[in-house]
Amino acid sequence: MTDSDYPWEPPFAGTEAEHVVGALGRLRATFRWKTDDLDAAGLQTRIGASSLTLGGLLKHLAAQEDYAFTTKVDGGAARPAVGRRRLGR
Question: Engineered SS bond to 22: which of 8, 10, 35, 64, CB 3.0-4.6 Å?
Fold first, then answer.
């Protein structure tokens, strides 16, 4: 079995960075698979009592990934939040 047998999995052997990038690739592939055929109405649908939508979850994950790589991995300054609400308001 090789890494290419399961391209959505992180590499079996590799550096820490390769494992992190592989794990992110797996998460991205999963969310794309789950949301790829949804239109705008599907992405805005709320389920049950939650106010979270799939579109909102995708935006949140993208923002958190950007923050983590910009500040924690790269050591850069945090970017200002654009179009995000503060919790509790």
Answer: 10
- Cβ–Cβ < 8 Å for 53, 45: yes
Contact between 43 and 55 under an 8 Å Cβ cutoff? The reply is yes
Q: How many residues does the chain have?
A: 89
The pLDDT assigned to 82 comes to 60
Domain ranges of the chain: 8-72
Helix, strand, coil distribution of the chain in percent, nearest 5: 55, 0, 45
The residue whose two tokens read 């300054």 is 77
Instruction: Calculate Rg over the CA atoms of the chain.
Output: 16
Would you say the pTM of this structure is higher than 0.85? no
